[in-house]
Specification:
7-stranded parallel sheet; 6-stranded parallel sheet; globular; alpha/beta; single chain; 2 domains; 352 residues; Rossmann fold
Protein backbone atom coordinates (compact mmCIF):
# COMPACT_ATOMS: atom_id res chain seq x y z
CA UNK A 1 0.00 0.00 0.00
CA UNK A 2 1.22 3.49 -0.87
CA UNK A 3 0.78 6.06 1.88
CA UNK A 4 0.32 9.73 1.03
CA UNK A 5 0.96 11.93 4.05
CA UNK A 6 -0.79 15.31 4.07
CA UNK A 7 -0.61 16.08 7.78
CA UNK A 8 1.01 19.50 7.23
CA UNK A 9 -1.81 20.74 5.00
CA UNK A 10 -3.61 23.94 6.00
CA UNK A 11 -6.37 24.46 3.42
CA UNK A 12 -6.17 27.74 1.54
CA UNK A 13 -2.79 28.76 2.93
CA UNK A 14 -0.21 26.89 0.83
CA UNK A 15 -0.91 28.29 -2.63
CA UNK A 16 0.14 26.27 -5.66
CA UNK A 17 1.53 23.35 -3.70
CA UNK A 18 -1.92 22.59 -2.31
CA UNK A 19 -3.59 22.99 -5.72
CA UNK A 20 -1.07 20.69 -7.38
CA UNK A 21 -1.37 18.08 -4.62
CA UNK A 22 -5.15 17.98 -4.83
CA UNK A 23 -5.03 17.68 -8.63
CA UNK A 24 -2.55 14.81 -8.37
CA UNK A 25 -4.77 12.96 -5.90
CA UNK A 26 -7.78 13.44 -8.18
CA UNK A 27 -5.81 11.95 -11.09
CA UNK A 28 -4.66 9.00 -8.98
CA UNK A 29 -8.28 8.41 -7.93
CA UNK A 30 -9.35 8.39 -11.60
CA UNK A 31 -6.55 6.41 -13.19
CA UNK A 32 -4.19 5.09 -10.51
CA UNK A 33 -3.37 1.37 -10.50
CA UNK A 34 -1.88 0.98 -7.00
CA UNK A 35 -3.56 0.74 -3.58
CA UNK A 36 -3.47 4.10 -1.78
CA UNK A 37 -4.17 5.44 1.68
CA UNK A 38 -4.12 9.18 2.41
CA UNK A 39 -3.32 10.42 5.92
CA UNK A 40 -5.16 13.67 6.64
CA UNK A 41 -4.93 16.34 9.35
CA UNK A 42 -8.04 17.09 11.42
CA UNK A 43 -8.40 20.48 9.70
CA UNK A 44 -8.74 18.91 6.22
CA UNK A 45 -10.86 15.75 6.50
CA UNK A 46 -12.05 15.96 2.88
CA UNK A 47 -8.67 16.50 1.19
CA UNK A 48 -8.14 12.94 -0.11
CA UNK A 49 -9.95 13.78 -3.39
CA UNK A 50 -11.60 10.37 -3.65
CA UNK A 51 -8.75 8.13 -2.48
CA UNK A 52 -9.13 5.94 0.63
CA UNK A 53 -8.16 7.98 3.66
CA UNK A 54 -8.23 8.50 7.38
CA UNK A 55 -8.01 11.55 9.60
CA UNK A 56 -5.09 11.34 12.01
CA UNK A 57 -6.62 12.73 15.17
CA UNK A 58 -3.27 12.57 16.97
CA UNK A 59 -1.98 15.43 14.81
CA UNK A 60 -2.61 18.85 16.32
CA UNK A 61 -5.36 20.87 14.65
CA UNK A 62 -3.91 23.84 12.71
CA UNK A 63 -5.83 26.34 10.58
CA UNK A 64 -3.21 29.11 10.27
CA UNK A 65 0.44 29.25 9.29
CA UNK A 66 1.59 29.91 12.90
CA UNK A 67 -0.64 27.04 13.98
CA UNK A 68 0.93 24.86 11.29
CA UNK A 69 4.39 25.57 12.69
CA UNK A 70 3.23 24.70 16.20
CA UNK A 71 1.63 21.46 15.00
CA UNK A 72 4.75 20.44 13.09
CA UNK A 73 6.98 21.22 16.08
CA UNK A 74 4.84 19.06 18.34
CA UNK A 75 4.80 16.25 15.77
CA UNK A 76 8.58 16.40 15.44
CA UNK A 77 8.98 16.22 19.21
CA UNK A 78 6.51 13.32 19.61
CA UNK A 79 6.45 11.38 16.34
CA UNK A 80 5.67 7.90 17.69
CA UNK A 81 1.82 8.07 17.63
CA UNK A 82 1.89 9.36 14.05
CA UNK A 83 4.47 6.82 12.94
CA UNK A 84 2.26 4.06 14.28
CA UNK A 85 -0.53 5.24 11.96
CA UNK A 86 1.69 4.97 8.88
CA UNK A 87 3.34 1.66 9.80
CA UNK A 88 1.34 -0.42 7.30
CA UNK A 89 2.49 1.62 4.27
CA UNK A 90 5.04 -0.03 1.95
CA UNK A 91 6.18 3.40 0.75
CA UNK A 92 5.20 6.95 1.66
CA UNK A 93 4.96 10.14 -0.40
CA UNK A 94 5.00 13.57 1.24
CA UNK A 95 3.60 15.89 -1.48
CA UNK A 96 3.93 18.97 0.76
CA UNK A 97 7.70 18.48 1.20
CA UNK A 98 8.02 17.96 4.94
CA UNK A 99 8.50 14.39 6.19
CA UNK A 100 6.06 14.42 9.09
CA UNK A 101 6.12 11.89 10.50
CA UNK A 102 9.40 10.34 9.31
CA UNK A 103 8.98 6.63 8.68
CA UNK A 104 11.25 3.65 8.14
CA UNK A 105 9.51 2.73 4.89
CA UNK A 106 11.07 4.10 1.68
CA UNK A 107 9.79 7.60 1.07
CA UNK A 108 9.65 10.41 -1.47
CA UNK A 109 9.05 14.10 -0.97
CA UNK A 110 7.96 16.72 -3.47
CA UNK A 111 10.27 19.73 -3.35
CA UNK A 112 8.26 22.50 -4.99
CA UNK A 113 11.05 25.09 -5.02
CA UNK A 114 14.19 26.35 -3.28
CA UNK A 115 13.16 29.99 -3.41
CA UNK A 116 14.47 30.66 0.10
CA UNK A 117 17.97 29.93 -1.21
CA UNK A 118 17.66 31.66 -4.58
CA UNK A 119 15.86 34.78 -3.24
CA UNK A 120 16.68 34.82 0.49
CA UNK A 121 15.98 38.56 0.73
CA UNK A 122 12.25 37.85 0.32
CA UNK A 123 12.14 35.71 3.48
CA UNK A 124 12.45 36.59 7.14
CA UNK A 125 15.28 35.06 9.11
CA UNK A 126 12.76 32.82 10.86
CA UNK A 127 11.29 31.57 7.58
CA UNK A 128 14.74 30.83 6.17
CA UNK A 129 15.71 28.97 9.32
CA UNK A 130 12.52 26.92 9.26
CA UNK A 131 12.96 25.93 5.62
CA UNK A 132 16.64 25.15 6.14
CA UNK A 133 15.69 22.76 8.92
CA UNK A 134 12.47 21.20 7.61
CA UNK A 135 12.93 21.28 3.83
CA UNK A 136 16.62 20.45 3.72
CA UNK A 137 16.37 17.60 6.19
CA UNK A 138 13.38 16.15 4.36
CA UNK A 139 15.13 16.36 0.98
CA UNK A 140 18.30 14.76 2.29
CA UNK A 141 16.60 11.90 4.14
CA UNK A 142 13.98 10.90 1.56
CA UNK A 143 15.04 8.20 -0.88
CA UNK A 144 13.60 10.12 -3.86
CA UNK A 145 13.01 13.85 -4.35
CA UNK A 146 10.28 14.72 -6.85
CA UNK A 147 10.51 18.20 -8.40
CA UNK A 148 7.97 19.90 -10.71
CA UNK A 149 10.56 21.25 -13.15
CA UNK A 150 14.12 20.67 -14.31
CA UNK A 151 14.86 24.16 -13.02
CA UNK A 152 14.03 23.14 -9.44
CA UNK A 153 15.94 19.89 -9.87
CA UNK A 154 19.07 21.67 -11.03
CA UNK A 155 18.89 24.22 -8.23
CA UNK A 156 18.29 21.51 -5.60
CA UNK A 157 21.26 19.48 -6.81
CA UNK A 158 23.50 22.55 -6.69
CA UNK A 159 22.28 24.21 -3.51
CA UNK A 160 21.40 21.17 -1.38
CA UNK A 161 24.16 18.92 -2.77
CA UNK A 162 21.65 16.24 -3.66
CA UNK A 163 22.72 13.23 -5.68
CA UNK A 164 21.10 13.79 -9.08
CA UNK A 165 20.21 10.09 -9.27
CA UNK A 166 17.72 10.66 -6.44
CA UNK A 167 15.88 13.48 -8.25
CA UNK A 168 12.86 12.89 -10.50
CA UNK A 169 11.39 15.69 -12.62
CA UNK A 170 7.61 15.31 -12.94
CA UNK A 171 5.73 18.23 -14.45
CA UNK A 172 2.32 19.21 -13.15
CA UNK A 173 -0.69 18.87 -15.43
CA UNK A 174 -3.73 20.84 -16.51
CA UNK A 175 -7.34 19.77 -15.95
CA UNK A 176 -8.43 20.17 -19.56
CA UNK A 177 -12.05 19.33 -18.84
CA UNK A 178 -12.26 22.36 -16.57
CA UNK A 179 -9.71 24.70 -18.15
CA UNK A 180 -11.01 24.99 -21.71
CA UNK A 181 -12.35 27.67 -24.08
CA UNK A 182 -15.89 28.83 -23.49
CA UNK A 183 -16.69 31.09 -26.40
CA UNK A 184 -17.16 34.26 -24.31
CA UNK A 185 -16.03 37.51 -25.93
CA UNK A 186 -12.76 38.97 -24.69
CA UNK A 187 -13.06 41.99 -22.39
CA UNK A 188 -10.59 44.85 -21.81
CA UNK A 189 -8.91 43.58 -18.67
CA UNK A 190 -5.66 41.88 -17.76
CA UNK A 191 -5.72 39.02 -15.27
CA UNK A 192 -3.15 38.16 -12.60
CA UNK A 193 -4.16 35.30 -10.25
CA UNK A 194 -1.62 35.41 -7.42
CA UNK A 195 -1.49 35.86 -3.68
CA UNK A 196 0.34 39.05 -2.57
CA UNK A 197 3.58 37.28 -1.70
CA UNK A 198 6.78 39.29 -2.35
CA UNK A 199 7.95 37.16 -5.27
CA UNK A 200 4.68 37.72 -7.11
CA UNK A 201 5.99 41.21 -7.96
CA UNK A 202 2.77 43.21 -7.85
CA UNK A 203 4.58 46.53 -7.41
CA UNK A 204 6.34 46.32 -10.80
CA UNK A 205 3.10 45.17 -12.40
CA UNK A 206 1.33 48.28 -11.10
CA UNK A 207 4.03 50.47 -12.66
CA UNK A 208 3.66 48.66 -15.97
CA UNK A 209 -0.12 48.92 -15.79
CA UNK A 210 0.12 52.70 -15.36
CA UNK A 211 2.18 52.85 -18.56
CA UNK A 212 -0.37 50.74 -20.43
CA UNK A 213 -3.26 52.93 -19.27
CA UNK A 214 -1.71 55.94 -20.97
CA UNK A 215 -2.46 54.31 -24.33
CA UNK A 216 -5.43 52.20 -23.22
CA UNK A 217 -7.35 54.20 -20.58
CA UNK A 218 -10.22 51.70 -20.51
CA UNK A 219 -7.94 48.77 -19.67
CA UNK A 220 -8.36 47.27 -16.21
CA UNK A 221 -6.30 44.85 -14.12
CA UNK A 222 -8.08 42.05 -12.23
CA UNK A 223 -6.32 40.41 -9.29
CA UNK A 224 -7.38 37.18 -7.59
CA UNK A 225 -5.93 35.24 -4.69
CA UNK A 226 -6.31 35.60 -0.94
CA UNK A 227 -4.15 37.52 1.47
CA UNK A 228 -3.97 41.14 2.58
CA UNK A 229 -2.79 43.66 0.00
CA UNK A 230 -1.58 47.23 0.21
CA UNK A 231 -3.61 49.94 -1.52
CA UNK A 232 -3.99 49.30 -5.25
CA UNK A 233 -3.90 51.87 -8.08
CA UNK A 234 -6.84 53.14 -10.10
CA UNK A 235 -8.18 50.60 -12.54
CA UNK A 236 -7.28 47.59 -10.39
CA UNK A 237 -10.03 45.25 -9.20
CA UNK A 238 -9.35 42.84 -6.33
CA UNK A 239 -11.60 39.78 -6.29
CA UNK A 240 -9.87 37.71 -3.60
CA UNK A 241 -10.15 33.93 -3.48
CA UNK A 242 -12.56 32.62 -6.08
CA UNK A 243 -14.10 29.22 -6.83
CA UNK A 244 -12.31 27.54 -9.70
CA UNK A 245 -15.22 27.95 -12.08
CA UNK A 246 -15.16 31.73 -11.59
CA UNK A 247 -11.42 31.77 -12.26
CA UNK A 248 -12.01 29.79 -15.46
CA UNK A 249 -14.55 32.41 -16.53
CA UNK A 250 -11.95 35.14 -16.01
CA UNK A 251 -9.38 33.21 -18.08
CA UNK A 252 -11.93 32.90 -20.88
CA UNK A 253 -12.84 36.60 -20.86
CA UNK A 254 -9.52 38.33 -20.11
CA UNK A 255 -7.75 40.17 -22.90
CA UNK A 256 -4.52 38.58 -21.62
CA UNK A 257 -2.89 36.98 -18.62
CA UNK A 258 0.06 38.95 -17.30
CA UNK A 259 2.37 36.93 -15.04
CA UNK A 260 5.28 39.02 -13.63
CA UNK A 261 6.44 36.56 -10.97
CA UNK A 262 10.09 36.71 -9.92
CA UNK A 263 10.21 33.01 -9.07
CA UNK A 264 8.17 29.88 -9.76
CA UNK A 265 9.01 26.24 -9.21
CA UNK A 266 6.48 25.50 -11.93
CA UNK A 267 3.81 28.16 -12.50
CA UNK A 268 0.31 26.85 -13.20
CA UNK A 269 -1.66 29.99 -14.17
CA UNK A 270 0.05 30.53 -17.55
CA UNK A 271 -0.79 26.97 -18.64
CA UNK A 272 -4.34 27.23 -17.30
CA UNK A 273 -4.79 30.47 -19.23
CA UNK A 274 -3.41 28.91 -22.42
CA UNK A 275 -5.80 25.97 -22.09
CA UNK A 276 -8.70 28.46 -21.86
CA UNK A 277 -7.58 30.34 -24.98
CA UNK A 278 -6.16 33.35 -23.11
CA UNK A 279 -2.95 34.86 -24.54
CA UNK A 280 -0.05 35.09 -22.07
CA UNK A 281 2.62 37.69 -21.33
CA UNK A 282 5.01 36.13 -18.85
CA UNK A 283 8.14 36.69 -16.80
CA UNK A 284 11.28 35.03 -18.14
CA UNK A 285 12.34 34.03 -14.61
CA UNK A 286 13.05 30.64 -13.06
CA UNK A 287 10.98 27.70 -14.41
CA UNK A 288 8.56 29.75 -16.52
CA UNK A 289 10.35 29.46 -19.89
CA UNK A 290 10.65 25.70 -19.32
CA UNK A 291 6.91 25.45 -18.71
CA UNK A 292 5.60 27.93 -21.28
CA UNK A 293 7.99 27.16 -24.15
CA UNK A 294 7.37 29.38 -27.18
CA UNK A 295 3.73 30.03 -26.23
CA UNK A 296 4.25 33.16 -24.11
CA UNK A 297 5.61 36.64 -24.82
CA UNK A 298 8.41 36.98 -22.27
CA UNK A 299 9.67 40.00 -20.37
CA UNK A 300 12.17 40.86 -17.64
CA UNK A 301 10.06 41.05 -14.47
CA UNK A 302 12.09 43.89 -12.93
CA UNK A 303 11.48 46.29 -15.86
CA UNK A 304 8.00 47.89 -15.93
CA UNK A 305 8.54 49.30 -19.43
CA UNK A 306 9.40 45.84 -20.73
CA UNK A 307 6.37 44.31 -19.00
CA UNK A 308 4.15 46.95 -20.62
CA UNK A 309 5.71 46.39 -24.05
CA UNK A 310 5.17 42.63 -23.84
CA UNK A 311 1.53 43.06 -22.86
CA UNK A 312 1.02 45.55 -25.71
CA UNK A 313 2.46 43.03 -28.17
CA UNK A 314 0.08 40.32 -26.96
CA UNK A 315 -2.93 42.62 -27.07
CA UNK A 316 -2.00 43.68 -30.62
CA UNK A 317 -1.75 40.10 -31.95
CA UNK A 318 -3.68 37.78 -29.60
CA UNK A 319 -4.51 35.04 -32.13
CA UNK A 320 -0.85 34.11 -32.59
CA UNK A 321 -0.37 33.59 -28.85
CA UNK A 322 -3.71 31.84 -28.40
CA UNK A 323 -2.81 29.22 -31.04
CA UNK A 324 0.60 28.59 -29.52
CA UNK A 325 -0.94 28.40 -26.06
CA UNK A 326 -3.44 25.71 -27.01
CA UNK A 327 -0.65 23.56 -28.44
CA UNK A 328 1.62 24.04 -25.44
CA UNK A 329 -1.00 23.38 -22.76
CA UNK A 330 -2.14 20.18 -24.47
CA UNK A 331 1.19 18.56 -23.56
CA UNK A 332 0.53 18.82 -19.82
CA UNK A 333 -2.00 16.42 -18.29
CA UNK A 334 -2.55 15.19 -14.76
CA UNK A 335 -2.91 11.63 -16.05
CA UNK A 336 0.65 11.81 -17.36
CA UNK A 337 1.84 13.27 -14.07
CA UNK A 338 0.02 10.61 -12.06
CA UNK A 339 1.55 7.81 -14.16
CA UNK A 340 5.03 9.22 -13.54
CA UNK A 341 4.33 9.38 -9.81
CA UNK A 342 3.21 5.75 -9.87
CA UNK A 343 6.56 4.83 -11.45
CA UNK A 344 8.26 6.42 -8.42
CA UNK A 345 5.94 4.62 -6.00
CA UNK A 346 6.68 1.26 -7.65
CA UNK A 347 10.40 1.96 -7.41
CA UNK A 348 10.11 2.80 -3.72
CA UNK A 349 7.98 -0.25 -2.91
CA UNK A 350 10.18 -2.60 -4.94
CA UNK A 351 7.47 -3.22 -7.55
CA UNK A 352 9.34 -1.82 -10.55
Amino acid sequence: MIGIALLTLVPGELGGSESATRALLQALARSGTLPYHVYLPPVAPDASEGLPSEVVAEYRRASTIPGRLAAMSLAAARPAPLQAKLRSADAVHYPLTIRIPPVEAPSAITLHDVQHLDLPQLFSRGERSFRALAYHRSARTARIVIVPSAFVGDRAVELLQLDRSRVRVIHHGVDHERFSPGGEPREPFLLYPARPWPHKNHARLYEAFALLRRERPDLRLVLTGGGRREATPDGVDELGNLPVDELVSLYRRAAALVFPSLYEGFGMPPLEAMACGCPVACSAAASLPEVCGDAARYFAPDDPAEIAAAVSDVLADPDRWIARGFERAAGFTWERSAAAHEDVYRELAGLA
